[in-house]
Specification:
The complex is a heterodimer. Helix content of chain A is about 35%, strand content about 15%. By secondary structure, chain A is α+β, with helices and mostly antiparallel strands. Chain A has three domains: about 290 residues, FAD/NAD(P)-binding domain (3-Layer(bba) Sandwich), CATH 3.50.50; about 90 residues, Flavocytochrome C3, Chain A, domain 1 (Alpha-Beta Complex), CATH 3.90.700; about 90 residues, Fumarate reductase/succinate dehydrogenase flavoprotein-like, C-terminal domain (Methane Monooxygenase Hydroxylase, Chain G, domain 1), CATH 1.20.58. In chain A, the strands form four sheets. In chain A, strands 1, 2, 5, 6, 7, 8, 15 and 16 form an eight-stranded mixed β-sheet that branches. Chain B has one domain: Alpha-Beta Plaits. In chain B, the strands form two sheets. Chain B has a two-stranded antiparallel ribbon with strand order 1-4. In chain B, strand 2 and strand 3 form a beta hairpin. The two termini of chain B are about 25 Å apart. The interface between A and B is large, with 64 and 46 residues. Chain A: This is L-aspartate oxidase. Chain A: It catalyses: L-aspartate + O2 = iminosuccinate + H2O2. Chain A: It holds the Pfam family FAD_binding_2. Chain A: InterPro entries: FAD-dep_OxRdtase_2_FAD-bd, FAD/NAD-bd_sf, Fum_R/Succ_DH_flav-like_C_sf, Fum_Rdtase/Succ_DH_flav-like_C, NadB.
């Protein structure tokens, strides 16, 4: 079939909160915008299915101070107060816009005032889709990007991909590209996260961009065994039990999750939400109807009955690592390339502690808008020739094997191999230098093999690229984790259990065939937008 | 994982084919969607939420249940109130109130004597 050929100012890759805010704000800045999503913009990604709290704090100095201080120590003092302040400002403004202009139906609190600290996933994202379309953005659903295009100077100039339902290749020439593809949860089955395979980080690295904070990538969420609902807030009301019915001491949703991980290595672990009173129980159903889907359908009363639980890896979706930003405009080190949401590092506001829930939501809204506006400015700054400039494709692994292509379903073996190294608690949650090094050797081997042989055509091309992206992601994670020979934030090392004041820096990483890291001192002030 | 597509209820609107984030469905020859790639289902319940006639049922477990007929028994699922329950709970569908308007949850216990956070709303 003939290629669908589009030309635009800004291409947004992704379809979740960061992507839709980027598209909306780029269009608002006067840019022509195309949004290409691997799935369906409106249902894709963690937020649409799970819903999210939002780091929405009214501009009262004491409240803002408390909000900024709350995770600083947990995050190993790697966050940046100036970024926190601007994200709090932007989130407050944008969430109010969601209420006033998008008419999102926020609830009213007990004091009669609207409560704007949370968003129900399906409702939020269907409204974001409507807003994006009303703004004139061309939306390509089920259209995974395969690779980025660059011009002869190395600036990013668009992308190509394949429309899975229309069975048609496409190409978008763009003045600038925003990567808002989410984090990477390694097809672990965390709620809504199987589209989050780190594709954007692979595209960015192929263009020469850097990542930061990849050692903060070992988030695990609680879910009832064999299910997908990884919503953990209500486990604050839980008591956890051994298989024999005695209480599992030290286990907790917050500050005791590794106790659960250790127990799960030896036995089944059970849970009961028996600390919630009747009023809380009723309110929980209203706040999170999706939390109860699993229980209602399994016929379990979670307040009265014990049920088996598991921990599901959430990688960099709830970790904080991602594409490194170089300025307030969410630019990367590559001209024409911007990053937003979970695809970008969230260390700027979370440090090394999970950005799960409210912080990531605020980050998606804020960074999405900034990246979209900056991409629009960049596209406008290019001469008219930008639309016809010569481009070169940047994709490698899974797309252009260096040797003889292997079987079309070769991606299955690669996915199994990377999952073997990143899903087990013993390897990724309870990290030790010896285990990390062994995993990294296995992952490097997998990379060498896939680089030579991995290939799948047309409809399955996305599966090969996802597999390659996950292996690259895992290698950055473990290389960064080995470089941090201490325990800081969520990057805990059993062989280095203490925080080391000498490592109060960020760890930058990148590279594909050869992965590298370097420390980045915190004194480097991000550059200001002119 | 998606287990039931009710041919009886389906109005062949293609909504589930469009909205499934992992592209599980194909349009069948009679308009009723086929579960062409069931193994890609991520149990996110989005197809159910978007089906205007409650013709779909997503079982809560993340692997297929070939031997459990109850997850494909439309009468049973309807009788027990499970069919269409997610759409009802989020208040989607004509004449319903958006669930988000009523989404006032409990306050979580605040650690370390900090002032309590606002009620959970999502």
């Amino acid at each position: 079939m003939t290629t669908l050929d589009l030309t635009t100012d800004v291409l947004v890759v992704g379809g979740g909160p960061a992507a839709t805010w980027a598209a909306l704000k780029a269009a608002g800045a006067g840019a022509d915008v195309v949004l290409a999503d691997k799935g369906y913009c409106g249902t894709s990604g963690a937020t649409a299915s799970a819903g999210t709290g939002v780091w929405y704090v009214p501009p009262e100095p004491a409240a803002r101070e408390a909000a900024m201080a709350s995770r600083e120590a947990l995050g190993g003092h790697l966050a940046d107060r100036r970024w926190m302040a601007r994200v709090l400002d932007q989130t407050y403004e944008s969430v109010n816009e969601l209420a006033d202009e998008a008419r999102y139906p926020f609830p009213t609190g007990p004091d009669g005032r609207p409560l704007r600290n949370g968003l129900q996933g399906p409702e939020y994202m269907r409204r974001m889709r409507m807003r994006v379309r009303r703004a004139g953005v061309r939306v390509l659903d089920h259209s995974p990007v395969g690779e980025l295009l660059a011009d002869t100077s190395g600036a990013v100039a668009g992308a190509t991909g394949y429309r899975r339902q229309a069975r048609q290749p496409y190409r978008v020439r763009a003045g600038a590209v925003v990567l808002a593809t989410g984090g990477c949860a390694f097809l672990s089955g965390a709620l809504g996260c199987n589209v989050n395979t780190g594709d954007g980080a692979l595209f960015a690295a192929e263009a020469g961009a850097e990542l930061s904070g990849m050692e903060f990538s070992n988030a695990y969420a609680i879910a009832p065994e064999h299910t997908s609902v990884t919503k953990t807030a209500f486990y604050t009301f839980a008591t956890f039990f051994h298989e024999d019915g005695t209480v599992l001491e030290g286990a907790a949703s917050q500050g005791g999750r590794s106790v659960i991980a250790r127990a799960l290595l030896e036995e089944k672990v059970y849970c009961r939400l028996d600390r919630a009173d009747a009023a809380a129980r009723a309110a929980m159903r209203l706040a999170q109807p999706n939390f109860f889907l699993t229980f209602d359908r399994l016929g379990i009363d979670p307040f009265a009955q014990r049920f088996a639980i598991t921990l599901i890896a959430e990688g960099t979706v709830r970790g904080t690592g991602g594409i490194r930003l170089t300025g307030d405009d969410c630019a990367t080190t590559v001209p024409g390339l911007y990053a937003a949401g979970d695809a970008a590092t969230r260390e700027l506001i979370c440090g090394g502690f999970t950005g799960g829930g409210s912080h990531n939501a605020a980050w998606a809204i804020s960074s999405g808008g900034w990246a979209g506006q900056a991409a629009a400015r960049h596209a406008r700054s290019l001469s008219g020739g930008a639309r016809t400039r010569r481009t070169v494709p940047l994709g490698g692994a899974g797309l252009r094997p260096t040797g003889t292509p292997g079987p079309a379903d070769g991606f299955r073996e690669v996915v199994a191999a990377v999952q073997d190294e990143v899903l087990p608690y013993r390897k990724n949650y309870l990290r030790h230098g010896d285990g990390l090094a062994a995993s990294l050797r296995a992952l490097d081997d997998t990379w060498r093999r896939l680089r030579a042989t991995l290939y799948a055509g047309d409809g399955d091309a996305v599966r090969a690229r996802q597999a390659a992206a996950m292996v690259a992601h895992a290698r950055w994670m473990y290389t960064a984790a080995l470089a941090r020979t201490e325990t800081r934030g969520m990057a805990k090392r059993l062989d280095f259990p203490a925080q080391d004041p000498g490592q109060h820096h960020r760890v930058v990483t990148s590279g594909l065939d050869r992965v590298w890291t370097r420390p980045e001192p915190l004194t480097t002030a991000p550059r200001e937008v002119a | 994982m998606i287990e039931l597509v009710s041919a009886e209820r389906c109005i062949a609107c293609d909504k589930c084919v469009k909205v499934c984030p992992t592209n599980v469905f194909d349009r069948g020859p009679d308009g009723v969607p086929l579960l062409s790639r069931q193994e890609d289902c991520q149990t996110c319940f989005q197809c159910e939420a978007n089906c205007p006639v409650d013709a779909l049922f997503v079982a809560p477990v993340t692997h297929p249940l070939p031997d459990d007929r109850t997850v494909r028994d439309e009468r049973h699922l309807d009788r027990t109130g499970l069919l269409g329950s997610y759409r009802r709970h989020i208040g989607w569908g004509r004449g319903r109130t958006p669930g988000s308007l009523r989404a006032v949850g409990p306050r979580l216990p605040a650690p370390g004597g900090r002032p309590p956070a606002p009620p959970i709303t999502s």
